[in-house]
Amino acid sequence: MIGRNDAVAVSRDDARPVVHPVRSLLSRLPAFLRAFLPAFLRAAAWLRLSLQRSAAGRFACIYGILLALSAATLAMFLWWATAGLLDRQTEAAVRADAQGLSERWLDGNLPALMLTIDDRLAQNIDDDAIYLLVDPRMRRLAGNLSAWPAVVTAANVWHQLPVEHVGVKSLARVQRFDLPGGYHLLVGRDVRLRVQLRELLTDALVWALVVVVGMASIGAVIARNLFRRTIANISDTATAIAGGNFARRVALSGRGDEFDQLADTINDMLDRIGRLMDGVRQVSNAIAHDLRTPIARARTKLEDAALHAHGEADLRAAIEQATGDLDGIVRVFQALLRIAEIEAGSRRSAFAAVDLVPLLADLAELYGAVAEERGFTFVLDVPPALPLLGDRDMIQQAAANLLDNALKFSPPGGAVRLNARATRNSVEIMVTDQGPGILAAERAHATERFYRGEAARSTPGSGLGLALVQAVAQLHDGTLALADAAPGLQAILILPRGNNILSNNGAYPGGMALGLASPGGGDVGREP
Amino acid sequence: MRILVVEDDKDVAGFVVRGLKEAGHVVEHADNGRDGLFLAASEAFDAIVLDRMLPGGVDGLRILETLRGQQNTVPVLFLSAMAEVDDRVRGLKAGGDDYVTKPFAFSELLARVEALARRGKSDAPVTKLTAGDLEIDLLSRQVRRAGQKIDLQPREFRLLEYLMRHSGQVVTRTMLLEGVWDYHFDPQTNVIDVHISRLRQKIDKPFGSVLIHTVRNAGYMVRAETG
Predict the structure, then answer these.
(1) What does DSSP assign to residue A146?
(2) Hey, where are the domains in chain B?
């Protein structure tokens, strides 16, 4: 223990630069770098490669950097809150000390001040206070410092100087105060212990940072591997499917997390693609089958005629029949192409305002004659006007197909009805016959290409009529519903009126938005 | 009539040229776009049968556009494998008068070419059409046969008018569907035959002699019995 009133000698090497805490930290950096440089270089090279090649690497790197940055920020804050606090406390204490002393000076001049300094030294339990009062000629009057340190020349500036405390080298933080009459006062604190404490703290924090960086790197590697494993699940599936194994699906972890949701979405997508592919396969099988039959028939006729025909008349008849068969094939092709064209949706650009009433009346007139000739009753029931936005030719053809069907399947004496009505947002065209209808189980398939129900097997036809109607309905964002008319079939073609399309997109090619744009356009189609 | 056929497919071209010649027409043939354009622009034809896809750097659409650009109004019938609705619309918009898609029946092509070539000739507006003792007045929309008035429904009148305008020519069912009903699809039902037979009930049946003839594998024709 150092005696309280022992003089403290100012050490000789005054000029030695003060070691600042941050600088002490930096001074350790080279040693640090030397120790960890190979590891750093290796990590940097790995990072560069990872970042270039792998999203998982980038992900891991970002994770590591974020973790290290937040740890560094925390360390800086800790350092500021502890080591910084020590400095600030010292400075505050010295300032308060000086304030008290200058008040003593004002109260009782020099002797009072000297007495106070001695008192304070005597009461200083921690033995860290440093005082020095000198006269104008810089001679010591009171205090525990033997002589005025040469470096302290300016008032109110902090100085850090080495002192010798009874043989023990130490550090002091001092400030000079000028008193009236040329007296100078030096007040300070011995900060050796605090400096040691600060260095300890700094070391601890630096090591903590090193540990954190290490853990961040390990964490990054783990994160990368997790990421890779999850991606690998999906990419394995994709590779398998690309390799032809379409039944493969992405495995679910069962946790219901984002990766599971992604896997679910991908699986749904694959299912849908699978269904579409099945559809395409069915259609191409159907094409192959349904066209093979008439092609075979035409070929047989021609070959048979070539081998067995007796005379020109036989040959001509065979050729004509074969030509007829080929025309049938061409018609099937045309229907298929037309359906594909409609399904592609390019016809939407030709949408215009159409009033369905004259359109349906024309069809009724065309088909009514046929019905009459065959002994059916034909009933047309339409409101005064049925405006809608659509493709006139396509709607005509769709309705004609429905009427073709109705006439084809109606029994003698039966009735065929063509009704139409407007509902809130759509127009419904209904064709009802009294034929055999379509079995409930078959209705869902009736609109597939080449599908022919039990009742239709024996009649001529390609099985494309309803498929085309369905395509036209879809082109107009509408639907084709098939219902039981008990007995018979009711086909309902529901087409949205498309007013919203019209108002959103008023300028149709050629300004064809005639009827619906007129002043009364708001309630068109609501008439009975 | 003088008809130019621009078609690069040898079989199709040979078939069409032979058929048109048999039907009594004078036929020129070009097997590429350049020659076709040269012939079409330098000589006078009553009708041109034009393929759309042609070798020689000039396709059918270009030929037609060039001709129309020179105020050449010769009737042009496209004969093309491009069968989509949009293709047809493009061909007609460019100034084509008719559009037949491959594969085609020659009777259909012949009927349409002859209809076109005939149309190109008679520019003067007609108010009266006659065939034998049948007479229709396009203004008062009255029909008389052997001096006797016949009542027709509006559609029956248009059907008869179309047949009379092409009297002496074959008119196919598709032409009637397009020309009278403005339908561009083939119904599965024999709708045209039914309407023709109704018309015959009124035009032919009461008078004993036939004006509306059926042409086998082709269509119908209005022709006055000669002699």
Answers:
(1) S
(2) 2-121, 128-222
